Amino acid sequence: MKWLGIRIKTTTEAEDLIIGSLYLRGLEGAQIEDHIPLSPLEKEQMFVDIPPETGEDDGTAYLTFYLECVDDNNPDVQEIRAIIDEELDQLQYYDIDAGELSVEIFETEDIDWINNWKKYFHQFTIDDLLVIPSWEEVSDEDAGKMILHIDPGTAFGTGMHETTQLCIRQMRKYITSDTRLLDIGTGSGILGILALMYGAASVTATDLDPCAVPAVEDNLKNNGVDSSKFELMIGNIIDDRSVQDKVGYERYDIVMANILADVLIPMMPAASKALRPGGVIVTSGIIEGKEDSVSEAMKAAGLEVIDISEQGEWRSVTGRK
Q1: Which of 178, 234, 249, 262 is the most exposed place for a label (fewest CB within 10 A)?
Q2: Is pTM, for the whole model, over 0.70?
Q3: pLDDT of 73-93, one tens digit each?
């Protein structure tokens, strides 16, 4: 499949106005390229594995729109260019610096969005753990490290995000060969898989997204981890009694939940019921400023807060039953 691409060079000041005006004319789904750092709220709302920021913000922005080319019904380039020129001309009536407003129209082959991650995702270490994608090789100097093979995909979790790293460091403190671990919101399965690699006896995991199923299967296989020790169920442990019953009560030595504060808070009663007396719950995905709310929810669910750790703008709260 081929696509018609329209790329506009403008400024960060004008990008929202241009996107809005062209949206009303039928050009939807703009790809934005700029160097504006994400705010804490945006990071919390996105909650994805965010590649490191590169470059300085010079105010320049590129907006790219894609239109599908289908047989004889290809978009009319002249008509599209006329629409764009008309909308860009309207910017003169606004008190903003819109930049040079150059327009490039091009044709491209089908875009492989997942494989485009290869430009950004490279191997990295978390203490003595090497996280490496399938398209890279382990260097001689890293040969002695524990190695996690994982590729970015449709389910959250590569280890790049600070919240995942916080979970990994906390989890390692408590894992033994007898550990039964529950991973709520498992995503790619990275935490549960690492728990098994670190010696845990078994992992039960839940997630709302069916995409987690193939992601976990692939990552178990790619890391040579026994899939019989990893049980995954799709459903909402917060309010689905059937999921709660299947997960079980007072069964787990560790409960992991790397989600968001607004989900962790209502989840706490169900998570506490799944935890055996003396067991620990490790939570992350908590933006700075919300750790107190999560701590209070833990206490209300009968848990004692034993640790609050931080990395960047993110917090991890650990409790004990």
Answers
A1: 178
A2: no
A3: 677 888 999 999 999 999 988
